[in-house]
Amino acid sequence: MKHTDTHFYNRLGVAFETPNFYQKFTAAENLQFFQSFYRKNRLDGQELMAKMGLSDAYHTRVSEFSKGMKMRLNLCRAFLHDPELIFLDEPTSGLDPVNVKKVKNFILEKKAQGKTIILNTHNMSVAEELCDRVAFIVNGSIKLIESPTVLKKQYSEKIVTVIYENEGVEIRKQFELKKLGQHTVFQNILKQDQIVKIETEEKTLEDIFIAFTGRNLQ
């Protein structure tokens, strides 16, 4: 790292889980200050804040921001210089569902633009929705790395659950997916037209993490 030049740092963006800003500065002043570190490819801080739902807070002191607002401002700062490689540490931490969606959409937008984003999270639903590949890290080592789709195919049981009503009572039955077409009980349930729900038994990434590592997410 001693021999890297400014071009190297211009290509990187980082957003830590605990954002640090100059509390007496406004959001605009903070972004302008950090933006001055970079020589080119500067994005409009006000536009970034608008995408994060922070338009009205552009000239507000950061000391008046909530934790969720600081998290979103932190994300704006990471992308100020339009970096190629971005590290995001728990980017949805402390956010309500509305703002989680804004952050997810923003990350997906940057991903679609060809940015490489390395995301650290304990929220497996976020990882599944945003990531092309996930890595399970245990005691500082990568134990498994694969796409969410492949992992769920490998670890999920090929079982179909049918929930239906019979004389006012809700009943749940499971069938093997391979033999579903020839299963007479399943066919009879379909004919009764009392089906409430049909679903596959698919493991979540959290289930797979626990099964693979023997540890709960913390």
Structure description:
- The protein has 218 residues and is of the alpha/beta class.
- The chain has 2 domains: 6-120, P-loop containing nucleotide triphosphate hydrolases (Rossmann fold), CATH 3.40.50; 157-201.
- It is 38% helix and 22% strand.
- It is built from 9 helices and 8 strands.
- It has helices spanning 6-10, 27-35, 45-51, 67-78, 97-112, 124-130, 148-155, 184-192, 205-213, and strands spanning 12-15, 85-89, 116-120, 134-138, 141-146, 159-166, 169-176, 195-200.
- Strands 1-2-3 form a 3-stranded parallel beta sheet. A 3-stranded antiparallel beta sheet has the order 7-6-8, with helices on one face.
- The chain starts with 5 loop residues before the first helix and ends in a 5-residue tail after the last helix.
- The mean pLDDT is 87.
